[in-house]
């Protein structure tokens, strides 16, 4: 479970994702063969989930950190409706979409 406070420093989020990545690596032989579920309030309201792309402006390292983490672990974000206002802040990232 991840909680990223709004406007938290990018380095804090990057450190959190690095620890999460290390946990996944330590507990799996192959990320494609291990069930991975990451849930939380990421507070990244401008991520384009339809295209899995970070916003182009303003640049924010947290969006790219999350995008790289998703790609490296073959994850899919499955929440399709806004969770706060018009934004998807609460995420469910999984690597086996067929299990949903």
Give the helices and strands, then pairings.
Layout: E1 2-3, H1 10-26, E2 37-41, H2 61-72, E3 76-77, E4 90-94
Parallel strand pairs: 1-2
Antiparallel strand pairs: 2-4, 3-4
Helix pairs in contact: 1-2
Task: Describe it.
The radius of gyration is 13 Å and the shape is globular. The model has no long low-confidence stretch (mean pLDDT 90). A 4-stranded mixed sheet has the order 1-2-4-3, with no helix packed on it. The chain contains 2 helices and 4 strands. α1 links the parallel β1 (2-3) and β2 (37-41). The chain starts with a strand and ends in a 6-residue tail after the last strand. The longest helix is centred in the N-terminal third of the chain and has 17 residues, at 10-26. It has helices at 10-26, 61-72; strands spanning 2-3, 37-41, 76-77, 90-94. By secondary structure, the protein is an alpha+beta fold. It is 29% helix and 14% strand.
